[in-house]
Amino acid sequence: MNNIQMSADINAKVNLVKSIANKTRGPYTPEKYGSVIIPMAIIRRFDCVLADKNAQISQVLQKLTKLSIDELQMEQAINTECGVPFYNKKCVTLETLVGDSDNINSNFLEFIGAYSPSIQAILKDLKFREEVEFMIKKGILFEVIKAFSQVDFHPDTTSPMAMGYIFEEIIRTYKANAEAGDHYTPREVIELCVELMMSENVDELNKEGKIIRVYDGCCGTGGMLTTLKRKIKADDRVRLYGQDVNPEAYAVCCAEMLMLGEDVRNIHEGNTLSDDKLRGEKFDLLITNPPFGVEWKTDKAFIEKELKQPDNRFIAGTPRVSDGQLLFLQNLLAKAEDEARIAIILNGSPLFSGDAGSGESEIRRYVIENNLLEAIVALPDQMFYNTGIYTYIWILSKKKDPRRGNKIQLIDATGFYTEQKPKSLGNKRKYIDDDNRKKIVDLYNEFQENDHSKLFDREDFGYTKVTIERPLYDKKRNKIIKKGVVQVDTTKRDVENIPLKKDIEQYLQNEVLPYVPDAFADRSKDKIGYEIAFNRYFYKYVPPRSSAEIKAEILANEKSVADVLKVVLQDD
Question: What is the number of alpha carbons within 13 Å of residue 417 lying toward its C-beta?
């Protein structure tokens, strides 16, 4: 299925699920729809996955019940015999339950209670049994089950990628408590991240028998983890780990992990910044898309406590509390093995926000001076479903390929896209197809200067913030001196951001003193800063139109208006 077909199918199935929400109107207000729609969508996916396996599972269960084994062992046996890592002891589908409408209430309660332990844990986290009992009380359970029984989530018609999109759109639609900065990542962007990560310096990961541990600290519904595993085609050697603060996204992620045969115990619910469930763990591939521009004020006390510990994750500093993206970046660096590869998607703020000496600048300084940053790729705008802003992929590693040395590569891929077809998905109007993705990866691999790729020394992004003072004068224009020290006029204080590659004294001689001869630098206040003014490096000057061209256009417009007025007046 190509992108156009898949997008159309996703839209159709999401709209069908949304229409089911209306059946809960009355007993449920719109902000509560998600309490039913999200778990029912998960159950329907399980239902469709098991549909073709139930007959075989039933036979295997009959044999297993004669043995003295627990249900977890039964899950393992079912997985071995039937190729699915979970089961439902009833071995029936939603369609079967709808066929017995008189007993739907008791049958459905038995049905959800008959799932194997892995599924039970997910439904328990979602508190779904309470919702079922409420729907029974309000008399709407049958209509909801009947409607979902008509939704086709069968794996033959709904791929894991498409199912991931559907889950994410459902959560985005119905979870009012979702963070404003949460943006689920398009799969083609994840594929681009993976190809960039895996295109060089991966000899250690490709060694036979090497277990590749993959981590996402903001795993959401698991899209990055599952897409990465499919993309690198090393299923038997990949282990997936993740954590997410959103309970619904966490539940869906667990469901996705089950579909892939992954160990659900490696996926955790909780705030990665304040309650790290994988503390001290190290990983080989780290990939994440943290929330954009979301404050971490409620996590501040926990993070400040961790800062006092010698092995804390945030050794480079902390950004302003209004945006925690650079905290998530440091979390990845702290969890990276020496040969690890890292990809993180950020908005523009981490590139330049914060003055010299600020938390943001100090984090950039740590990353750049320690030669951890390989490349930054600027993506097109309108790539995400609920925001149209520009975003950037940062590729990092603790051990760069020798050919990159101390260089940092910036890639402008803002023009590498096609239209999202057959129509936009929310704010997502652009799509990076295979051809454009290859162009971007080729730019990264070629590691050369051209219109879309620039190479920089680490020092190119650094500067010294130098405080420029002016003397304080008395009424006779004499400098005021106290105890041998020239007093400064604080109202005329200024600063100069002087590139690290330039000699400060020479810069002052050339750029400051010719204009303010009495100025002097207070070097005791020097601060080192780092910023990556991405757009500046790819700016192309477009000369203004000539005055003759502008005049001709004005005259043409005037004539057009005059012709229209002439016709109108003649009609009168």
Answer: 19
Q: How far is CA 72 from CA 77, 242, 474, in A?
A: 9, 22, 87
Phi and psi based region of residue 525 (left: phi greater than 0; alpha: psi -120 to 50; beta: remaining): alpha
Cα separation, 332 vs 458, whole angstroms: 21
Q: What is the rounded CA–CA span in Å between residue 514 and residue 84?
A: 77
User: Among the listed ranges 181-195, 286-300, 305-319, which one has the minimum average pLDDT value?
Assistant: 181-195
Name every residue whose Cβ is closer than 8 Å to that of residue 539 and which is 6 or more positions away in sequence. none
- Token reading at 242: 């993740």
Amino acid letter at 57? Answer: I
Token readout for 335 is 């969890």
DSSP codes, 34-89? HHHHHHHHHHHHHHHHHHTTHHHHHHHHHHHTTS---HHHHHHHHHHHHS-S--BT
Region of 475 please: left (phi>0), alpha (psi -120 to 50) or beta: alpha
Provide long-range contacts, Cβ within 8 A and 24+ apart, for 66-75.
71/116, 71/117, 72/117, 74/116, 75/116, 75/117, 75/118
Phi-psi region of 80 (alpha: psi -120 to 50; beta: other; left: phi over 0): alpha
Taking the CA atoms of residue 266, residue 269, residue 271 and residue 276 in that order, the dihedral angle to the nearest 10 degrees is -30
Three-state secondary structure string covering 396-409? EECCCCHHHCCEEE
Is residue 179 predicted with pLDDT exceeding 60?
Answer: no
* Angle (nearest 5°) at CA 362 between 360 and 368: 105
Residue 182 has pLDDT above 70, yes or no: no
Distance of CA 191 to the CA centre of its chain: 13
Both tokens of 372, joined, read: 């951890």
Q: Which fold has domain 177-460?
A: Rossmann fold (3.40.50)
Q: Is the pLDDT of residue 334 over 90?
A: yes
Q: How many CB atoms lie within 10 A of CB 98?
A: 19
- Classified as helix, coil or strand, 11 is helix
**116 DSSP 8-state letter:** -
Which phi and psi angles does 469 have, rounded to 5°? -110, 160
The mean pLDDT value for 90-113 works out to 95
User: Under a CB-based contact definition with an 8 Å cutoff, are residues 472 and 226 in contact?
Assistant: no
What contacts 554, CB < 8 A, 6 or more positions away?
Answer: none
Tens digit of each residue's pLDDT (9 = 90 or more) over 400-452: 999 999 999 999 999 999 998 877 777 888 999 999 999 999 999 999 999 99
Q: Which amino acid is at 536?
A: R
pTM metric for this prediction: 0.85
Whether the CB-CB separation of 168 and 162 falls below 8 Å is answered with no
